[in-house]
Structures are given as C-alpha cells and as structure tokens.
C-alpha cells in the first residue's frame, strides 16, 4: 500500500477492476497497465558508504489515469490521458537530516511515462531503467543536494502478494489491487559522489478501486532480515480507530517460500510517537510486531523521527515514510509508511 498525493474521490468509468485469476506475465507486467486507473512503482532502500555512513532513499513513480474521451477527438501530444507524479526522498541517518522532492507531469512529448518497449519508468530526469532479461534496474535521480545512480540486482523472483492473484482491500469484487514486489535487491552505486551499497525493496501495484469511506489510512512495513527472510505487513485503519479485517501481509522465508498472512496472523503495537511541528500529526515511530505462527517478534524503530512528507496544499494529505531498523528475533532494515494521521486519506 502506498500514498498517492493527488486526490480522486471516485473511480472513473471505463477502467478495469483487479479480479482474481489474473495471469501474470513477466517482464511485461513490470511496466504500464493503462487499463487500470492507478499504478505505482515504489523503490525504498537502506545503503551505506565505506566509512559506515548510512542513508535511506525513496524514489516513487505514480501514474493516475485521467481519460475523459476518445483520443481520436484530441490528437495533441499534450492531451492528458495520464498524470505522472514522482517523489524523491533521502534520509541522512548519521546527520539526522531528511529531504524530499515532488514533481508532477503529463506524458507530453516524452516528459514522463512508463513503457515496456523502452523498459523504463520516468519523470523528467528521475528514472528506473530495466534490463528485461535479468530484471536488474538502474535508478537515477537529481535534485537540489541529491544525486544518485544506483544499480539494483534482485536476489529473488518477483513475489505476488495476496490470494488468488489479488491483494484484497475491501469486501466486494474489484476492491483489490495486483501487487508485486522484489523484496530484496542488492544495491551498488553512487550517492552524491560517494560509493554506496546496501539493499532495496521494490513494490509495483495497479488497480482502479479507491479506498472505502470508512478507511482512514494505513501503516505499511517492509523488513529485510538478517536471517535472509523478508516481511511485508500493512494494516488498514478505519475511522474511529478500528483495524480493518482486510489488513494483510507476506512472509518470504530464506529458501524463497512465500506465506500469505491474514489480519489475525499478526499484531502491530505502537510503542513511541513523534508529533510533527508542521502538521501536528502524531505518528507512531516505534512498533512491536508479532507473528506467532512464525515465532517472530520484532521491534521496528525509525532511523530518525522526522521523515514526514508534508503536503503543499490543503487538498492533499501529508504522510510519514522513512528508513527503519529492526531488532528482536532477528535484526534488519526496511521502510515504514504511515498515512491518515493528519486527516483521513481520500485515495
């Protein structure tokens, strides 16, 4: 689950729904699905320099379908069939500094897009370039005070989340997404001129259904553990504080076996909070995670407290997303995203 900053309160007609029984085809399904209204490619990672200096990074590409009629009636290259939003963030853990950047484009004459034929997803000079034969990916991004080129090599095959090919988010047909991850990619490259290495997580989701009116936000966890296992959990929070029964997760064992986790299979308990000085939202930045069936107990702690991406206008939500560390049954690194704490999400 990820946050889309633009708000669209109702699904547009003419888009497909995510239904069980989808036949995934890779590498084709790593790229654009214009028949679905919303899609995102989400990269998060933890890297370090040779001297031990640690960083977290986030590079995200969103596509939001805005088709309003027959393309033949408006052949202009500037016609808006899709809007492309991108987020870039860097956490300098040792310096305790968090920086983030956003950009919005239409496709136009190559300004932004996602293309199987070009094997890339991009927004201006931020790009994820793929090698379809190996699923290797190269991320490049330039912004004020941030410049990186990172080569990502998957350790595992792509993981499909959910059951029957869909990640269900609410009751009813189509109230779901197609959700695929590379849960552990080796990272090597340069960040602001310094050689770095580490691990990354890549999420790709496409869907048309929007959040239900009673779903206020979510908490999403990724963990890359020293045992060689990976864990993804998300809990949907309802208005009033109740946890949604469609919260779920995925455990990938060191040997690659994948286990789907239902809401009743895990528990997430907040332990400490940070209050944003800008939005006054109160975010849990330390959590206890228990998965009894896996004999797994973890404590998730923010690498630094202030990793909030603040909205630029009142109509958009702010959210917290940043690097975290894990201790407990195993140690590890990952990312945490929390939405709906300043106001309900309306995705």
Q: Could you tell me the mean pLDDT?
A: 92
Quaternary structure annotation: single chain
How many β-strands, per DSSP?
A: 23
**Largest sheet entry:** 13 strands, antiparallel
Summing up helix and strand content along with how strands pair, one would put the structural category as mainly beta
CATH structural fold name of the largest domain: AttH-like fold
Compute the number of helices. 0
Rg, nearest Å: 19 Å
End-to-end distance:
11 Å
What is the CATH architecture descriptor of the largest domain? Beta Barrel
Order of helices and strands: EEEEEEEEEEEEEEEEEEEEEEE
Helical fraction: under 10%
- Provide the number of structural domains: 2
Low-confidence stretches: 3-11
Question: If you had to describe this structure to a student in words, what would you say it looks like?
Answer:
It comes from Solibacter usitatus (strain Ellin6076). Keywords: Signal. By secondary structure, the protein is mainly β. 0% of the residues lie in helices and 54% in strands. It contains no helices and 23 strands. The protein has strands at 38-49, 54-65, 82-92, 97-106, 112-115, 120-123, 126-131, 136-143, 146-154, 159-160, 167-168, 176-191, 194-207, 215-225, 230-238, 248-252, 258-262, 267-275, 282-291, 296-302, 308-309, 319-328, 332-339. The strands form two sheets. Strands 1, 2, 3, 4, 5, 6, 7, 8, 9, 10, 11, 12 and 13 form a 13-stranded antiparallel beta sheet that branches.
